[in-house]
Write a structure and sequence with these properties.
Chains A, B: It comes from Filifactor alocis (strain ATCC 35896 / CCUG 47790 / D40 B5). Two copies of one chain form a homodimer. Chain A is an alpha/beta fold and 361 residues long. Chain A has two domains: 119 residues, Aspartate Aminotransferase, domain 1 (Alpha-Beta Complex); 223 residues, Type I PLP-dependent aspartate aminotransferase-like (Major domain) (Aspartate Aminotransferase, domain 2), CATH 3.40.640.10. The first copy, chain A, has 13 helices and 13 strands. In chain A, the strands form three sheets. In chain A, strands 2-8-7-6-5-3-4 form a seven-stranded mixed β-sheet, with helices on both faces. In chain A, helix 4 runs parallel beside helix 5. The first copy, chain A, is globular. Chains A and B meet through helix 2, helix 4 and helix 10 of A and helix 2, helix 4 and helix 10 of B.
Chain lengths: 361, 361
């Protein structure tokens, strides 16, 4: 059931509830619902015959596009088939004896850490009484105490939506000596200038920033992620552990165009912010729910009524073709928590409408 | 310079000789020049918005298409990002102490075998006096003598064009106990019914057949390969060593259509046979060349004149925007050998015309 950890499997749901896959509004997958860059899609359409050539094995143009987008040196860019493979390989590189992860978090960090023999995994728990906001000093203390070789953060964090600023991360890098991996899958849904650690990678060699393109750029189908790091040892490791032409030519062409489509990027950000604000406002009006602040394109909610839990809500929403994400599988969360992402305005309105009906019962 | 092992880097050549990349006729890459399945390309174009969804994590439809194409059980199909990654992982699975490869061959086999610590690699050398045709009994004897844990064959073999029949492989499987990996990258350019070992994978658990889609289906850009094997241990190993969603949605959509496009498959085969026959006939007419028989879409030639070598020929052909593959880097071959693949009729005619001019000098 691996796939369920990454959000509902639409194919299974469709079969179970006799829906067409396209009719289900998937509030669990965190993908930008406004779609991919039209410029990029048009470019791919016009050059689809390029499936018959090998990609440039150096990916020069793609790296240039990522470089201008993420303000990182092209030499510090590592390309991967999605973010998860990069996370896995970086952990292999560090080969830790002691690791530190923040929880609740994306379950793949621990899965990957568990593959390292003799590795002890410690957890830094985000407290709901602090709205899941981490305390940098406390995190540093615990990381150093446990002699962690690697610290893994998701920023903003999935599923809590909490965030560390760039200044927090600088402070962290100055006061720890371990490798720090920051998963910035959701960074584009917030103010990158204030929160992204990408610009710090040049200064701090032990910092590894990883990003995917599935969520913000709405392209999970193309399997494209990238890592940013200035450590020669890390760069060499990835070079020698990566297949030639690991990035397919569609991802290459999409990337070359979408990372430089500044209008699309600005509009997507604005639209998601508007929808997030709408959802937070509406959800907060339900007395049965506590809504946690979020810097991602998703919102963590806690059911504070004794009368029902997230499973109940899930089952009640599915007949309306609305799929939310139950969060009981996240460490430290329980059946009272669920997560929803921002979809299209009409979908968000439909969800709020359905919730009103259900919660009024 | 890794890329040069896999054929000329067109980008570098274009810069050096002031050509547009598209103007160079690349006789070194072995890609079917008639292009990808139009049905598949049209389907991808119509459904390009699918970049915004995750592929089905079980790849059910893609596996069904491969199954009907390769006559293998869907449960025995392993998907990979190109053939090379599958080759690498299968070698990791076997983790051999002793290995046997046929030479001359694709250099990646030895590169991957060399990554296994403590592995001794033995070679079975194809003799030019036998037109590089392998002797099954001799190969069995040597494999058993060396106690090989794995035997790697390419069938038909690159760069020699020689081949083993399905009956030869059955005989081999009956008389060896090691894992046998057969790289069938070029099998579709010949009579699959007689030469492919795919149907044998059900009977022989230690047989692993690997295929790519870059060459025959003219889709190196989509990064799609597959392995066929009925051994549960092998299947489990790949399951636990493969990232979720390793095949991107463009490759998925292309595969679903192109493997079932029987008209395209039959036409491609016919056209390549016609061009191969033309080239073999024309090349054989040069008294300076010995042309080896080929079951692939490429032809190995030996310069039997003392007056020049393949480097000379390469340099003379580049100004005509024709790139051949010098074969000195293949073990047991030398500067007298070159390989060309079948391109479009006009390209093949141009090559023969240029060769006539050069060899008449």
């Amino acid at each position: 059931m691996k796939k369920n950890k990454h959000g509902a499997n639409l194919f299974e749901l469709a079969e179970k509830y006799h829906f067409n896959v396209k009719d289900i509004r998937d509030f669990s997958s965190n993908i930008n619902p406004f779609g991919a860059s039209k410029k990029a899609l048009d470019y791919v359409k016009e050059h689809l015959e390029n499936v018959s050539i090998y990609p440039d094995s150096e990916y020069i143009k793609l790296k240039q596009a990522i470089s201008s987008y993420s303000k990182a040196d092209t030499a510090h860019i590592i390309l991967g088939e999605g973010a998860t493979g990069l996370i896995s390989k970086f952990i292999q590189f560090v080969n830790p004896k002691h690791s530190m992860v923040m929880i609740p978090a994306y379950s793949e960090y621990k899965s990957e850490l568990n593959k390292i023999e003799g590795n002890t995994i410690f957890s830094y728990s985000l407290k709901k009484e602090n709205c899941f906001q981490g305390d940098t000093s406390e995190l540093i203390k615990k990381t150093n105490e446990k002699q962690a070789d690697i610290l893994i953060l998701c920023n903003p964090n999935n599923p809590t939506g909490s965030i560390f600023s760039q200044d927090d991360i600088s402070y962290l890098m100055e006061h720890t000596s371990c490798y720090v991996m920051i998963d910035e899958t959701y960074i584009e849904f917030t103010d990158k200038n204030k929160y992204s650690s990408a610009p710090l990678t040049t200064k701090y060699k032990k910092l590894f920033v990883v990003r995917g393109t599935s969520k913000f750029f709405s392209t999970p189908g193309i399997r494209l992620g990238y890592g940013l790091c200035s450590d020669e040892k890390v760069l060499d490791f990835f070079k020698s552990h990566t297949d030639l032409w690991n990035i397919n030519i569609i991802a290459t062409m999409m990337g070359e165009k979408m990372f430089t489509d500044t209008d699309y990027i600005a509009e997507t950000y604005q639209k998601i912010c508007t929808e997030r604000n709408y959802l937070i406002t509406e959800l907060s009006s339900f007395e049965q729910l506590k809504v946690y602040p979020s810097y991602g394109n998703f919102i963590l909610c806690e059911i504070i009524s004794d009368k029902f839990d997230a499973d109940y809500l899930y089952d009640k929403l599915i007949p309306d073709a609305l799929a939310i994400r139950n969060c009981a599988s996240f460490e430290t969360l329980d059946k009272k928590f669920f997560r929803i992402c921002t979809l299209l305005p009409e979908d968000n309105q439909k969800l709020i409408h359905s919730l009103k009906n259900i919660l009024a019962q």
